[in-house]
Amino acid sequence: MTADPAAPAADPGETVADPGEIVAELDNLRVWFPAPGGAAVRAVDGVSLGIRRGETLGLVGESGSGKSTTGLALLRLVDATCGSVRVGGRDVTWWSRRQLRGLRRRVAMVFQDPQASLDPRRTIGASVAEPLVVHRLVDSADARRRRVAELLEMVGLRADLADRHPHELSGGQRQRVGIARALAGEPDLIVLDEPIASLDLSVQAQIMNLLRGLQRDLGLTYLFIAHDLAAVEHMSDRVAVMYLGRIVETGTPEQLYGQPAHPYTAALLSAIPVADPKVERHRRRIILSGDIPSPVDPPSGCRFRTRCPQARPDCAEVDPVLVEVAAGQWAACRYAGEAVRAMRAGTVGEETVH
Amino acid sequence: MSGHPDGTLRRALSALRHDPPAVAGTAVLLLLLVVGVAGRWLAPDGVNDVDVDGILRPPSLDHLFGTDELGRDVLSRVLVAARVSLEVGLVSVGIALLVGVTVGLLAGWYRGWVDNVLMRGMDVLFAFPVLLLAVAIVAVLGPGLLTAMVAIGVVYTPIFARVTRAGVLSVREQVFVRAAVSIGASDARIIRRHVLPNIAAPLIVQTSLSLAFAILSEAALSFLGLGIQPPDPAWGRMLYDGRGFVTEAWWLGVFPGAAIFLTVLAFNLVGDALRDVLDPRQLTVGEARRSRR
Amino acid sequence: MRERTDRPTRPGRAGATDRHEPAGPDIAEPVLAIEDLTVTIGTRRGPARAVAGVDWSVRAGQTLALVGESGSGKSLTVLAATGLAPRTARVTGRVRLLGEELTALPEPRRRRLRGRHVGFVFQDPMTSLNPVLTVGRQVTEACEEHLGMTRRQARERAVELLDLVGIPSPRQRVDAYPHQFSGGMRQRVVIAMALSCEPDLLIADEPTTALDVTTQAQIVELIADLRRRLGTAVVWITHDLGVVAGVADTVAVMYGGRIVEQGPVDAVFDAPSHPYTRALLAARPGPGVRDGDLPAIQGSPPSPLDLPAGCAFWPRCPVRGDARCEHELPPLVPVAPGHRVRTFYPLSEDA
Domains in chain B, ordered, with CATH? Predict the structure, then answer.
């Protein structure tokens, strides 16, 4: 846990200007929830990462990997069990409720289901204006209306939609509203929690284009949380792969998608269906057996070993730390690279279903 | 705070206008209001004008609603009683609504020990038979109209607390509440702006039901001599008094009974319509279509 | 046309591979064929024509993928064909299941045929299972009724079915309850349930949408494997073009209640000829399109309540032809053998 690979600066905490200014940083964060019988659900169990200004950090994982909880921790919507959360160079891990209101202006969030995340009884305008009102960013009703119109136009909506209610909009329009609302407080970081997962396919591309366009124009910083690996690859400057509460691999999309070093990353990539029947027919797929283990009682040693096709006896004993396998690419596997090569060489076709 | 809520209200009211039952209910309520304010002047006779020669007369042109066992004009008494009955209903339900909703909001929002303490208290109130509780309160505060209203209010508080708490517990789990937390909104703001409007529907229904029961409870209390004191008229009281004459003088019970029935019905009609119309999803279809582009 | 209900039922048999031996002239008969299917749903806002003029068929051992976005009518097509459309729906057209015209049958007979010959797998495995019954009871509930099994036979059959769908130690798990299973395992239970009567047709409505990708890969493999071994015909409803490419033999792309493109999977993916299909394939992020915007389709899919007069895709179409597209419904025309497209302007391969 000593290495802090996702934070690019050599000595964490230093806020240097230019390419490496760290907007937000998690250091060995653990978020445990109480479970029946005095046990703990270890949703996040030792995650360290840093997010640089102006970049998109993609966070991928399956359900139960802890990726959403990690996002919530950045807004202190869940409390850390141990470790720290730093935003703008300040440790916010134990900030009071009062201070948190300030934090939640600096870090905004876009939720998965735009229908559920907008209050059905309030107009679009009222929803978008809420951060302005809460943080007293405008001093008159007129200024508020103008700012709401401006925000709606920024996300490609007509300003007159402000008087509508959420149910009168399409799914894509509602997600645009969610984005406008997140932009309202001019945050340093926007946590995008599965922002396209519940949208129609033809609308997903629109929203991804919008998010990238806004980032270009406004210099936004994103934490893009998704299970859709293709979308993460498209959106991200760097990617972190989570499994059972831990980051198992980080690197650039080119590194991870081209030369994955962790067996889990390789398996995840191989599981994505490709929209080409010829490729699908002939590809060798690494199919993992079983399901993600319970976060109440994670496996000893390497957490992935119970499903890893290349697990060795000592994987049960030693908990692997992230090691740098290539410049900027870190993997938490004692047999990184080697295991993936062995997996890819092995034929998978027959031993698919267990 | 902004023009938007007014817009909602305006649209809600205009939608209300196109709902015939709601229009009828509103008309009856307005009529009641007039009668409640001006009943004393509208009444053809004095409420306590005793006429020993004309007792228990059936309805006629002289006495449209007939006369009672003391020869008093029933119509006049029904008109004058409107004020008391409405007052009892509105004030007692007002008390129940205010206290019950506050308790329910705190219990549902903060949960934990706050919830336990408050809701166990409500359970204790709820466990008492209604009249016993009211009698106990009257015993402490002394009989009278105000006491009756407080007593009835206390009796109906737990229902409102429970309805509110159930609503808060479900709304607080909605993503839009988490979204409001995520932008740094305070608890007070979230409760006021997001939770309350979304639990309004069951509360409105409960209010219109409770108004009816409160008017009837007043009758029971008055009957026990704990509410309004004779000879002042109240609908519930008149209904009870008329009970003894059901076979020989039906009009003694029927007219106050009809007044209660109409009032309750009107409250219910308006309550139902309000519930529907305050939900933005229930507004017209054309708007939804126009907004798609 | 043969009567399948009287086929000897061997309850003690796991899905053996000898079933559905393609015997004789029977092979040409599709398991399910629908023609000119139209579904109109009465809503508060008036009738909505949710499905219109849909034709397709699926043969034994084959997979037909129905692809579309929300409101395209893909699920409703199948529900209506099998008699499961909501009560407010008016269904017209012809539906033949194993050669028997379903629309002409009285409901009790139709229900029996459906129960006996069609298995369903829905999106959410949690809501498809009853939380208070053991999985063993649920898996065989349908076949107890349709095949007249005893309790003991049913239990044995349940163990076999759980084994068939790859649930480890099925003899122990047969008495477990749904909440004791993970999402992927639950979907396996649902598949076992669907297969319990040895159906000729499996309808899989977004069976992997609620699952993680590694679990999705398992379920895709499982269904493909079962189809090979049991010769079941599969109708796979999905919005995921990647899944389609992996599972389908033929594809029907739906938009606004109509099929806009249908054909063999290779033809549709290699030479997508409808602007919608092509735009949908292009809008997916893939390797190599890191820089620049995705070629997104503007706007949103139409509501069945408010469909344009002509081509439903016209308002969003990048080609956008001419006034004819706006006012006149394009016919479904062949562009290659078995490959049909509903557009006035089919795209050529290099367009």
Answer: 3-47+72-291 (1.10.3720.10)
